[in-house]
Amino acid sequence: MLTNYIKIAWKVLLRHPFYTFITLFGISLTLTVLMVLTSFLDHLVGTHYPEMKRDRSLYLMLMVQRDSAHTGRSSGPMSFKFLTNYAKTLKTPERVTIFSAFNSSNAYVGSQKIKLKTKFTDADFWQVMDFKFLEGKPYNEQNIANGDYVVVITDDFRKQYFSDATESVIGKDVDIENIHYKVIGVVKGSPVTRPVTCADVYFPYTAPKSNYQRDGMRGGFMSILLARDKSDLPAINEEFQSRISQIPLPGVENGYKYTTLEVKSEPYAENFIGQIIDGGPGLKAILFGVIGFILFMLLGLPAINLVNVNVSRIMERGSEIGVRKAFGAPVRTLVWQFIIENIFITFIGGAIALLLTSIVIYFINSSGWIAYADLTINLSVFLISILVCLIFGFLSGVLPALRMSKLTIAEALKS
Amino acid sequence: MIHLQNIEKVYRTSTIETLALNNINLNIRKGEFVSIMGPSGCGKSTLLNVMGLLDEPSKGTVEIDGQAVTQYRDKELAQLRNQKIGFIFQSFHLINDLSVLDNVEIPLLYRSANGRPRQEYAKDALMKVGLSNRMKHFPKQLSGGQKQRVAIARAIVGNPDIILADEPTGNLDSAMGNEIMNILQQLNNDGATIVMVTHDEQMAKRTHRLVRLFDGTQVL
Ligand SMILES: Nc1ncnc2c1ncn2[C@@H]1O[C@H](COP(=O)(O)OP(=O)(O)OP(=O)(O)O)[C@@H](O)[C@H]1O
Ligand SMILES: [Mg+2]
Predict the structure, then answer these.
(1) Is residue B134 part of a domain?
(2) Which among A107, A246, A375, B184 is most buried, taking Cβ atoms within 10 Å?
(3) A residues 295-324 lying closer than 8 A (beta carbon) to B
(4) Mean of pLDDT values over A247-266
(5) For residue range A171-230, what is the model confidence (pLDDT) as tens digits?
């Protein structure tokens, strides 16, 4: 029975090359867009190099201060001192790292200027993150206590700065803003889409210009609380929030009088989405509206078009439908036949989409558009796509089948 | 075998109402070979469709092999057609995308398997109509007479009690037509009940009984 259906489906595909082209084009294009988007989203918020412990980490990225009238707010990263007092000393996490947002600097090779992203971190940073060291090692507590002028650099920067690629660069000098640092390690870089870890050069926080001794609660630093186990996350969040709630209110920061203060400690994905929709309920509605519209255009329109094409394609087969009914096919069986046919076609479209997606992802990864991009088709993306395939196939099979089932056999045979 | 009582069939379109069948009472016994004749548009096809459960009468009752089908739902009607009736159409109605063998297998797709593979039954049926050497062909590669023989094979593959044929020789020349008629007669001799619509007096003479229609009314 099944082979019979698939035989027919295959023949129908070959008989109508144009319909087939439109159908497959619609399905595969839609699925490709969907899969590339999901892959990109996964690239942004999923657990990837070098943030391999995202699933058991809480991110402290932002302090928000509001005044009594709630008319204004002031927000930004925090001071090293604040994080040392309120995060570093927490009891529940396995480890806490403090690091700066990335800053810009310049280095010179001869007379040529290299624009740099720099980051100041503590030693725990290298434990919480899973950077791959191509050479050397990270700086440790001792280097930090001594105030050593050492840096960890990325392989990209090594290539730019040291023309001789064959020789080890450990122990060599780099000159950044007229200060000499010794290279202590070389890591494979992190893509710019991961701002917590992305930089060209990493300094110990005791290096010059880090401002780690600055007073006040706001500054240029952020923190990650690493749990021993995912299940500890709520307890860690609770401990941190109870500490925060003990900060005396109201207060003044840089002349701004605030009456409430908030520092969220949340998983990366939540933080990421929170930043996007952190514009009040109005903006949220607009955002979801836009997303809904895009999804509709992306999925709804091709689906409707597909159903349309399928209806005419199936109605064209009145004679076949009439014959099958005349020889004993119940309507239900015929409906299944058309659903199976459509699922079969959709899966061909899905296979094409998978191929196209791999090609697109390959080009994104190798184009250098995002340095260190590591988009992948992962299992969940693939499964979602298969599910979408199934829904497509089902939708575009049921409707024509139902329309067709209303015909009497005599009518169907005449058409 | 087939019992029609007070059958009426009205076709309604937005402008006119056509009384295609008017108070038809007909009893076809087991093993009979009946032909239906009448001018074009008198309701022959409509009558055959009502007998074969391909169309519902507006009034009256249809009984097949003692079962009154008035209350039957789609699934039960389908089962009854599948078990009891084989159809042969003037324009063959073969599925072009399927091979001869696959076409003949169709009625068997809709019953539960019973031991032998479906293909074996289909090959037997094709043997009976003398087409065992064309099994892998597609309908487009066959002559009209060959197509109709495939259609006959499809009608008999499920071994139905009743064969309903709507002008089976209408699209064929007389030699081909005679061949088809010979096959039908053989099937009747083997026990099948056959009702055939025809325009050809010669064909009608070779059957047991003639029913004549005129304007939806039975006149003979
Ligand atoms: N679906 C329909 N809608 C409206 N009228 C119909 C329909 N089918 C048949 N008729 C009408 O019913 C009458 C009987 O049609 P039918 O097809 O049974 O005639 P017939 O005797 O088989 O003719 P022919 O010898 O030309 O095949 C005709 O007047 C026809 O116009
Ligand atoms: Mg007719």
Answers:
(1) no
(2) B184
(3) 319-320, 322-324
(4) 89
(5) 999 999 889 999 999 999 999 889 999 999 999 999 998 999 999 999 999 999 999 999
Across B64-76, average pLDDT = 90
Residues with C-beta less than 6 Å from any ligand 1 atom: B 11, 13, 18, 20, 38, 40-46
Mean pLDDT of chain A: 86
Q: What is the pLDDT of residue B114?
A: 65
- E strand map for chain B: 2-12, 17-28, 33-37, 59-64, 67-68, 85-88, 162-166, 193-197, 209-214, 217-218
Packing angle of the helix pair A280-295, A268-277 (nearest 10 deg): 100
Give residue B62's domain range.
2-96+156-218
Tell which one of B22, B35, B45 to mutate to probe ligand 1, the residue whose CB is within 8 A of the most ligand atoms. Answer: B45
CB B181, CB B174: distance < 8 Å: no
Alpha carbons A187 and A151: distance in angstroms, whole number: 11
Q: Which ligand places an atom closest to the C-alpha of B37?
A: 1
* Helix pair angle (A2-15, A331-367), 10° resolution: 60
Q: Any idea what the Cα angle at residue A381 is, between residues A397 and A362, rounded to 5°?
A: 115
pLDDT digits (tens, 9 = 90+) for A108-123: 887 888 899 999 999 9
The whole-number pLDDT of residue A278 equals 66
What CATH number does residue B192 fall under?
3.40.50.300
Residue of A nearest to B74 (CA): A330
Angle at which helices B144-156 and B118-128 cross, to 10°: 130
The count of domains in chain B is 1
